[in-house]
Amino acid sequence: MPAPAILILDDELAHGNMLQDILELNDLKADVVARPEEAFEALRNRRYALVITDFRMPTMTGVEWMRKAREMVPGLPVMIVSGVMDMPALSQASQWGVNYIFEKPVNVKHFVEQVKACVMGASNARLLPRGGSTLPPFRAPDTHRAQDRTASFPQPLHYLVAQTQAVTDALAALWARLGEGKPVWLVGPAGSEIEYILKEIAGWQKATERSIRVLSAADFKHESIDKLLTQWSRGQASERIVMWGDLGDMSAADQEAFVSWIEQLQPHFGHVSFIIWVEAELFGLQPERLSPVLVEAVERSGLYWPPMRR
Asked: Residue 223: what pLDDT?
C-alpha cells in the first residue's frame, strides 16, 4: 500500500524542502509548492491525506488558504507551521479547525509523530512539547476518546481558545488531575496565559476570581504560610485555587524541601486545588537550576501546557 501523499506549502522553498526531506527520511511522501495558487492546483490534480502550510505568506495566511482549500476538499486535514502567531491568529485557526500548529523551528521527532498520527489515522500519538524533546511528555487521560474530550469540561471555555487538539487534551487532563485531589505540576513556556488557566478552573469549580491566590514557592518557608494553613484547615480562607511559581529562583535544597512539603500538604486540604507552575525553559535551557527531586516529580505526574503564543 503506497504511503499517503502530503502537500507542503511554504513560500520559503528551502524550508519546505527541509520538511520534505524530514518526512521522506521517515517513509512519508511529500510534494512541495511555494505559492498558494500552486497548492490549489495540486489539490485539483492529486488526493492528499494532509497539507502542511506556512502561516505567513505574501498573498494570504495559512488559515485563509485552508478555508479556501476546504471548499475544494471538505474535511481536508491541515497543519500549520509558524514562527509567530498572536492570539487573534490562533483564535481564527481554532475556529476553522486547524489540525495542529507547529512552531518554527520544528522539533523533528514531534513533527514526524504528529504527521504520522494524522495520515495513518493513529489515535494514540504521543504528544510532545513543541519546544524540544528535553521537556516532560504531556499526559492525557486514557479514559477520554479524542472526540469526547471537550465534553469533559464542566462548562464551555470563557478565557482560553482550544486552538489545537493538544490544548483540548491538556485541559481535559488538567480537570481530571484536579479531581484526584493531588497537586498538579503544570509545565509551560514563559508568557503562557496562566492567569486565564486559573480563571477557567475557578469557573469550573463555580468559584470567583477572588478565590485564586498566586504565591511564590519560596513562601512555603515564610511564617505567614502557617496562618494560611490554619485558615485552610478550618475552612476560614476564601482560597479555592492556589498556584505556586518561581521554582527556578529557589536553591536545589529548597526545591527538594518544597516538593516534599507540597505532596504531604495536599491530602489535608482537599477543598483547595494546588497548582505548581514550572517554566518549561528551565528544562531545556537551564537544567542546572532544577533539583533532580523536582524533575522527578514533574516527570512522574506533570502536565505540559501547550503554548498559546510564541
From this structure: 79
User: Maximum distance among all alpha carbons in the chain?
Assistant: 71
List the alpha helices (DSSP H) in the chain.
13-25, 36-45, 62-72, 87-95, 108-119, 165-178, 194-204, 223-233, 252-265, 281-284, 292-301
Contact assessment for residue 80 and residue 93, using Cβ atoms and an 8 Å cutoff: yes
State the CATH number of the domain containing residue 241: 3.40.50.300
In degrees, rounded to 5, the angle at the alpha carbon of residue 208 between the alpha carbons of residues 207 and 211 is 85
Count of beta carbons in the 10 Å neighbourhood of residue 31: 18
CA dist 132 and 136 (Å) reads: 9
Give domain status of residue 154, yes or no.
yes
Backbone angles phi, psi at 101, to 5 degrees: -125, 125
Span 86-145, pLDDT tens digits = 555 655 666 567 788 887 778 888 888 889 888 875 323 333 233 332 333 333 333 333
Rg (CA), the chain: 22
What CATH number does residue 43 fall under? 3.40.50.2300
